[in-house]
Amino acid sequence: MFIRIYHSGTIHNFNIWAYGENKLVRGSGLFINKTGFSTYHHFLLPKNEKLDFLEGNYKIEIFAESINKTKKLFEETLILSKKQSEDLKRGYAIYFNWAANSKKYVSHTENNL
What we know:
The chain is mainly β. The protein has two domains: 79 residues, no CATH class; 32 residues, no CATH class. The chain contains one helix and nine strands; from the N terminus they run βββββββαββ. The protein is globular and about 40 Å long.
């Protein structure tokens, strides 16, 4: 699995994938049966890349790769405000929570230091 993020004409591939709740496991393959599979997923940039989260719109695509093909699983556009961008630079975390009544993600930052 991997995530692709588009912002202001740039593309970043978060191609390092890990999953788990208490201990992260580096993802290399995953079997999902008919009952499904639920866990926390973590996507990282390669060590030599950096992404400064600046104010603006971010299109996020999530992909799964099988032996013969790549399939897009999900796509969403998220908005980062100037204040949120500044909060991230100070070490805050940002959360995007789905608001079913408005059918969009609502975001907020928290100081987790």
